Amino acid sequence: MIASLSLILLCQLVGEVAVRALAVPVPGPVVGLVLLLLLLLARDRFPVLARGPLGNDGVESVSRGMLANLSLLFIPAGVGVVQKLDLLAEHGIAILVILAVSVIVTLLATVATFVAASSMFAREEEDP
Amino acid sequence: MSDNPFSLWVYLSQSPLLWLTVTLLTYAATDAVSLKTRRHPLANPVLHSLWIIGAFLLMTGTSYTTYFAGAQFVHFLLGPATVALAVPLYENRRRVAAAVLPMLVALAVGSLAAIVSVVLLARAFGLPRDIILSLAPKSVTAGVAMGISESLHADPSLTAVSVILTGIMGAIIVTPLMNFTGITDFRGRGFAAGIAAHGIGTARAFQVDEVAGVFAGIAMSLNALVTSLLVPLAVTYLLR
């Protein structure tokens, strides 16, 4: 478990160093994600890599455990926000209504586009 | 120690141990309730942990800085959790690769819908310009949204509040809304949750279905990039 966690931290560390060295506007952890993905793909090609955290479901089980409790990780930042709710008081209910309607519009627009586009592209593949 | 319980409190309330424990315990309890109710949308663990901890801090007169000294160890894991998204992405790589085109189209439409809808609604409600600018990036991760807000000379704190509220509302609403539309494609449902409600929506998606979680994670990451480009464009065009 420690080796798997170290591998994840190492990927993030390399990512953070890379984005700062290259001054690209991408978050370091996202580069870390790509690195870990490449390592996992490389393991399929080169079985010699399947050892330590990359063998025996190591990094997989630690990652799954972390993602299963993803909600927990938003609590510290969220609590700070709860203390700033007075910022909303001035405009009261208006902002809440706007955000709620906007989130519904966004969810519907995205899912409808996704479903329509995937059936369109699927049909094109069937009869080119 | 027993002759002065107050000094014990002074010691504990200043140490990271107490606030880390409070954060983990509250989450463990709210998550247990969420599991017990078979992940009922209204039993969202983020929502309930926030008000419980918020009320506790208020009652004990604890500052956020003191609280965060303990909670930062949890907050820190956001980075590694982002890296960890590589694992479900790898395990579902064929489904993801097969859906690249629909994802890109849905990303463009969804990202625009998120920004344009909030700007137009806020204008219709007659909100002042600086408030509208602060609300515009509300569908992306707090860090990115606050950066956008800053670059527009808006109020990053108000942006952070609207980001968290959007995430929680999206996470609560997504399941009933999708069930209502009758859409059962969990790739699309997850993708929409990630676009509309960033990480909190992604956390919800992982609770419901792993494939939904993977697509939500991709949507959240891509939306952070697209929104950073679109918000400045959209506000100059819509708020002339």
Helices, strands, pairings?
The complex is a heterodimer of chains A (128) and B (240).
Chain A: H1 2-22, H2 28-45, H3 58-68, H4 75-82, H5 86-89, H6 93-126
Chain B: H1 5-14, H2 16-36, H3 45-60, H4 64-76, H5 78-84, H6 86-91, H7 93-98, H8 100-124, H9 129-135, H10 142-151, H11 156-181, H12 186-208, H13 210-238
Which descriptors would you attach to this protein?
heterodimer; A: 128 residues; mainly alpha; 6 helices; B: mainly alpha; 2 domains; 0% strand
Question: How does this model look, in words?
Answer:
The complex is a heterodimer of chains A (128) and B (240). By secondary structure, chain A is mainly α. Chain A has two domains: 1-74, no CATH class; 85-128. Chain A is 75% helix and 0% strand. Chain A contains six helices and no strands. Chain A has helices spanning 2-22, 28-45, 58-68, 75-82, 86-89, 93-126. Chain A is extended and about 60 Å long. Chain B is mainly α. Chain B has two domains: 1-76, no CATH class; 81-240, no CATH class. Chain B is 83% helix and 0% strand. Chain B has helices at residues 5-14, 16-36, 45-60, 64-76, 78-84, 86-91, 93-98, 100-124, 129-135, 142-151, 156-181, 186-208, 210-238. In chain B, helix 8 packs across helix 13 and helix 12 (186-208) packs across helix 13. Chain B starts with a helix and ends with a helix. The relative contact order of chain B is 0.12. The model of chain B has no long low-confidence stretch (mean pLDDT 90).
